[in-house]
Amino acid sequence: MPELPPVVDAGWVRAHRDTLVLADVRWFLDGRSGYEAYLAGHLPGAVWVDVDTVLSAPPDETGGRHPLPEPAEFARALGALGIGDGTPVVAYDADGGPYAARLVWLLRRTGRPAALLDGGLTGWPGETETGAVVLPEARLTPVKWPEAALRSADQVAEGGAIVLDARAAERYSGAHVLPTDVRSGHVPGARSAPWSANLDPDGTFLTPARLRERYRALGVEEGTDVVVYCGSGVTACHDLLALEHAGITGAALYPGSWSAWSADPSRPVATGTEPG
What we know:
The protein is about 25% helix and about 10% strand. The protein is of the alpha/beta class. The strands form two sheets. A five-stranded parallel β-sheet has the order 1-5-4-2-3. A four-stranded parallel β-sheet has the order 7-6-8-9, covered by helices on one side.
């Protein structure tokens, strides 16, 4: 199979269905169970991938709510779900991919073929099925997270890179505070770049040309040093994949994101609609 682009449509999935694994990565900020939603109806043959236990290590103040999992544990968990070396993965969630993006980005940055299903479950025009899917266990070789794709809080604080905040605008400004947030606002100097603005009203991705326009307005184009964060390093991956979809490579993730930054009282906080 040719190298997967970061985003594929339903027609592509149907044409290659027998050669890939579908991954349902539903997760809900309001506390609803992604697994229960999966059991009630999912794409045929899809396995469920848990953001909290498969795509993250246990939360802590330094790493935030969703620290990156250890590479060996990540490989073990995905192998148990039937995702092995060389297995193409197409992931989706309830909407336009804000949570499925975490799985796709982690796989792509470690050299594995993976893509988001454009439009997610709501855009799937075909049939669905209920109940859990169990695939034969596979072997996925652990690969270290590439240092060039990640930034620490200290590296973000040093400056020099354009920092994008992928959260909703009201969380960026500090007008809306999650119960899990220690403080509200954003990293000083960060620019508001909500992941939802990567999508058309129908929940599918903007064209690469329109995405380039969007990020150019934020000061980002090919060759720009870019770091993206969000609440806990999950939806930031949507911006990272959108950048790749637009042909802008090399952007990095701050995994701890706001959950780690705001928990450290030594880190300054900006509020309002401007970077500060």
